[in-house]
């Protein structure tokens, strides 16, 4: 009789490498490794087939999810203007649902009974993986080794790997915990665990120049949007993956999008990390500039409030929920007229506006100008408006005056 199957979210990194032999030792499962390529780069997916089999998996699925990730998860979050706690552009947060979605699909294909992930019991990713599994197939069991095994640290994991002849991509001298995809790269652990330590940017950064090494000359870049979705850079139409990759190169050169963040994790603790999101920083700024031209005051104000809630949903792993889906539909509607071209100036970590135009611009020079605009705006009309707008203030002042007599 064949063994039941478990689908492992496999990256080939330290944690998931040691999970394969651990699963075989502690569960009577056939291990199906599944690696989701969301743009890790750096050769992280090279040789994974051989490595997974050597570590004890029966097979490996290597899924290229880059376009789906950017198109269906990154860009809807961008369109919402969602930023967690005012700094974090959610690079890890919206990658987990697309990965977990495909873990469930592989489980169905293989007839697996369980899904396993390498997220720690202190982190947010365990919630993101498991909420997605619950939403898509609650019958699947979830195995989370970090909540069960005796391994307490990355040093312990390295010792376990060495004892089981598992090839791993790091050593005890480089134990930063990193997550990389098309949208960003995060760095946690080691000296970063003390917020009093300045990050060692010269050796830490992977996508970006340190600020001191950014060029002394500014660079201009234009981004075209159609209905809130970026579609071209410097006049060249391109797909979502190519667009993000190009802006990462341009922004990284100018040290754009480096954030040192102490964030509030969903599980109740604060954590400190350094995030590199060059393309994301450029796109968020560009979209904000374009929206200032194309959206009315009330819509912009409500969108800013809603963006906070949307960011919390994404951060908390609630992608496959009615509220997130409904909010995305609302943001799609808001973005119907968010089409145009934004010109940006990149210099020493800064992104500033250098011009914007749109066929749906609400900016009317005839009204905004200090010149004669009597047909559209009569200065005398302001007097009556102000008297009515200030009526509650006048009534209150009159009451106070009468009370003092």
Automatic annotation (TrEMBL):
The keyword S-adenosyl-L-methionine does not apply. It comes from the Eukaryota. Its EC number is 6.3.4.5. It is an enzyme of class 6 (ligase). Keywords: Amino-acid biosynthesis, Arginine biosynthesis, ATP-binding, Ligase, Nucleotide-binding. GO terms for cellular component: cytoplasm. GO terms for biological process: argininosuccinate metabolic process; L-arginine biosynthetic process; urea cycle. Gene3D superfamilies: Argininosuccinate synthetase, chain A, domain 2, HUPs, Single helix bin. InterPro entries: Arginosuc_syn_C, Arginosuc_syn_N, Arginosuc_synth, Arginosuc_synth_CS, Arginosuc_synth_type_1_subfam, AS_cat/multimer_dom_body, Rossmann-like_a/b/a_fold. The keyword Plastid does not apply. One of its GO terms (molecular function) is argininosuccinate synthase activity. Residues 5-167 form the Arginosuccinate synthase-like N-terminal domain. Residues 176-394 form the Arginosuccinate synthase C-terminal domain. Pathway: Amino-acid biosynthesis; L-arginine biosynthesis; L-arginine from L-ornithine and carbamoyl phosphate: step 2/3. NCBIfam families: argG, PRK00509.1. Homotetramer. This is argininosuccinate synthase. It comes from Angomonas deanei.
């Amino acid at each position: 009789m064949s063994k039941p199957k478990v689908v492992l979210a496999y990256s080939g990194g330290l944690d998931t490498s040691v999970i394969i032999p651990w699963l075989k030792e502690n569960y009577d499962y056939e291990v199906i490794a599944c690696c989701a390529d969301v743009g890790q780069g750096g050769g992280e997916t090279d040789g994974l087939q051989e490595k997974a089999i050597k570590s004890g998996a029966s097979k490996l699925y290597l899924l290229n999810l880059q376009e789906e990730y950017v198109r269906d998860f990154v860009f809807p979050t961008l369109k919402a203007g969602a930023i967690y706690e005012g700094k974090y552009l959610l690079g890890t947060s919206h990658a987990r649902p697309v990965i977990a979605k495909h873990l469930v699909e592989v489980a169905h294909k293989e007839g697996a009974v369980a899904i396993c992930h390498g997220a720690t019991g202190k982190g947010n990713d365990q919630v993101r993986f498991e909420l997605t599994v619950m939403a898509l197939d609650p019958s699947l069991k979830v195995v989370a080794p970090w909540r069960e095994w005796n391994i307490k640290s990355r040093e312990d994991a390295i010792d376990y790997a060495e004892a089981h002849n598992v090839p791993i991509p790091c050593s005890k001298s480089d134990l930063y915990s990193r997550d990389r995809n098309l949208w960003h790269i995060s760095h946690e652990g080691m000296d970063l665990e003390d917020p009093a330590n300045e990050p060692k940017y010269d050796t830490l950064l992977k996508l970006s120049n340190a600020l001191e090494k950014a060029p002394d000359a500014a660079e201009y870049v234009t981004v075209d949007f159609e209905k809130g979705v970026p579609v071209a850079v410097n006049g060249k139409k391109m797909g979502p993956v190519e667009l993000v990759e190009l802006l990462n190169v341009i922004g990284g050169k100018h040290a754009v999008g480096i954030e040192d963040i102490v964030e509030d994790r969903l599980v109740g603790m604060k954590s400190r990390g350094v995030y590199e999101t060059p393309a994301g920083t450029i796109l968020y700024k560009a979209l904000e500039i374009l929206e200032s031209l194309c959206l009315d005051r009330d819509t912009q104000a409500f969108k800013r409030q809603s963006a906070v809630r949307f960011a919390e949903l994404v951060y908390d792993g609630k992608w496959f929920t009615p509220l997130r889906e409904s909010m995305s539909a609302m943001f799609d509607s808001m973005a119907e007229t968010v089409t145009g071209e934004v010109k940006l100036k990149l210099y020493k970590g800064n992104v500033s506006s250098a011009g914007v135009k749109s066929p749906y611009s609400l900016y009317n020079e005839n009204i905004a100008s200090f010149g004669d605009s009597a047909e559209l705006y009569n200065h005398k009309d302001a007097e009556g408006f102000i008297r009515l707008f200030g009526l509650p203030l006048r009534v209150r002042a009159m009451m106070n005056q009468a009370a003092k007599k």
